[in-house]
Specification:
This protein is mainly alpha-helical. The chain has one domain: MFS general substrate transporter like domains (Growth Hormone, Chain: A). The termini are close together.
């Protein structure tokens, strides 16, 4: 990595109150982001049944809507919002992204099969006459909007907060944000799924008011004023090879998180059945997601504090990768012994995958100001997209295993045994970024 000698505006000149407001706004934004991102997974079964999806199609339809359409929207949105963040500023992304996904989730509350006559004929003309097609389009649009929230928030906070406290600030954001999944589950226990989508969208629009007056990053303003070249030039993340390798390793180190959440937790009903859990005592995906994210919230706090304590992002990642191996082993060995044990194992997996706070910090610290928003926005969303790749390999492994009764859990174990070691190797090639001064640009 090469860095210019240009020094940007000192973040310490900002008042503490201003920084606290920015951190709080970013944390609440990520809270709504996670609420909306996980809401479909929580209401998947109920919502699909209510629009007429047959029981034997719940799994493939859920995979299509969530692990393919929504995460594809996340990837495309990550690219668009990331480039805008480096070209137009971090604040513009915080406003634009939340507006898009809030409107998409409000509309999601009203999906229904349209009549073939009258105004409904227009929807049929565009292929949106059926509720399931509307669901798919809105999941894609919601994913597109959600893609910009975390990266822009983490980038802005990383550039405003001092390097000594940067890790604490990003840990706070990640921890508060993760609790959005817990609140989403609790809300779905008292309201039906359409109302839950409506609540998520309204919360997002309400948060827009809090963002009025949030300050822009001084580092970005300086680079913008100087007309620094290659702001948001995404191709620079893939050239030269040293920078491309760094970017690839940032992504790979966090893939186990979204495999665990996207497969082991979201589809625990299918995996639990394949492990021999009786029909009346199989885990609920919604409740499993809630317990997983309780563990994630605690894990985020611990991983962030650990990286601060040992002054190392890399070592914190390795420690939590080892915990992921241990938690996954418990999941597949003793998880099926009882429903309570299963939820304990899911909570342990969540805790072990709680290095997301360290990961998003690393994603911002690895790259210069002219590429930071692009990298910090695209990397988390490519990790989320890996849920699609994980789902593909999971289902293909089931086919190779003969689609027998035990195939779902055996296939999931095979995929897990591959991706976690790869993630640990990826960390080896990442430079240590704890305490790094972010006042530089990529050449």
């Amino acid at each position: 990595m090469q860095a210019t000698s240009t020094q940007f505006s000192d973040s310490s000149s900002l008042q503490t109150r201003t920084k606290v407001i920015v951190i709080l706004v970013a944390a609440l934004g990520y809270f709504v982001d996670i609420f909306d991102l996980l809401l479909f997974a929580i209401v998947r079964v109920d919502s699909l049944k209510s629009i007429g999806i047959a029981a034997d199609q719940l799994k493939p339809t859920g995979l299509w809507l969530d692990n393919y359409l929504q995460v594809t929207g996340l990837v495309i949105g990550g690219i668009v919002w990331g480039i805008l963040g480096d070209r137009r500023g971090r604040i513009s992304v915080l406003f634009g992204s939340i507006l898009v996904y809030s409107i998409a989730n409000i509309l999601n509350a009203f999906i229904a099969d349209a009549p073939t006559t009258g105004a409904g004929a227009i929807l049929h003309a565009f292929g949106l006459g059926s509720a399931i097609n509307q669901y798919g389009v809105l999941r894609f649009i919601a994913g597109f909007g959600l893609a910009g929230e975390l990266g822009a928030g983490i980038t802005l906070v990383s550039e405003l907060v001092s390097k000594e406290r940067r890790g604490l600030a990003t840990t706070f954001i990640a921890t508060i944000g993760i609790l959005g999944a817990v609140v989403a589950y609790l809300i779905t226990r008292v309201v039906e799924w359409r109302t839950a989508f409506l609540i998520g969208g309204i919360m997002g629009l309400a948060l827009l008011a809090l963002r009025v007056g949030v300050v822009e990053s001084g580092m970005f303003l300086k680079v913008q004023t100087q007309h620094a070249p290659s702001r948001g030039a995404i191709w620079l993340l893939f050239y030269p090879w040293t920078r491309a390798r760094r970017y690839l390793c940032v992504i790979l180190c966090a893939v186990p998180i979204w495999f665990s959440v996207g497969i082991l937790v979201k589809y625990c009903d299918s995996i639990g059945a394949s492990m021999g859990m009786p029909e009346g005592a199989r885990p609920s995906p919604g409740l499993a997601i809630m317990w997983c994210y309780v563990g994630l919230a605690v894990g985020d706090i611990c991983s962030g504090l650990l990286s601060q304590l040992i002054h190392s992002r890399r070592n914190a990642l390795w420690i939590f990768h080892l915990l992921t191996i241990a938690a996954t082993a418990l999941y597949f060995t003793i998880g099926s012994s009882s429903l309570t044990t299963f939820y304990v194992c899911v909570t342990c997996i969540g805790f072990a995958c709680g290095y997301w706070a360290v990961f998003v910090t690393i994603a911002a610290e690895q790259f210069g100001t002219n590429l930071r928003a692009t990298a910090a926005t695209t990397a988390p969303n490519l990790v989320r997209w890996s849920a699609a790749a994980g789902a593909f390999f999971w289902t293909q492994c089931e086919v190779l295993l003969g689609n027998g009764p035990s195939a779902p859990w055996q296939a999931a174990l095979i995929v897990a045994a591959i991706i976690v070691p790869i993630a640990m190797i990826a960390v080896f090639f990442l430079p240590e970024t704890f305490g790094r001064d972010l006042n530089f640009t990529e050449e």
